[in-house]
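Run log, item B.
One chain of 105 residues. Sequence copied directly from the ordering sheet:
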Amino acid sequence: MAEREPGLDPISEDTRLQSLDERLNRAKTDEAIRSGEAREEGGDGYRLGNRVLAELIGGMVGGALIGWVLDRLLGTSPWFLLGLLFLGIAAAFRNIIRISSGRSK
């Protein structure tokens, strides 16, 4: 009589948990799509383009700024500015080539 209690489900516990996990994952996916939080496939190219742009601008501005400061301190205007600007551009292009070849990390 103890085997046939009305509160027990005839399905095994593992099957119920798997079913619950599947329904929960499906509900999370549906909610992400509904709220617009689902990741779109086109985002990778946009992110890569922003990274390349940041590398290029950062290299140029960083080199120019450091060169300008050194020129002001040492009184060698415009040589450090030009030299470090070109060095920053070269470093930026090296990083862009590294990013585009897939060895970014």
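Observations after the first pass:
- Helices lie at 13-35, 43-74, 79-100.
- The chain has a mean pLDDT of 84.
Flagged for discussion on Thursday.
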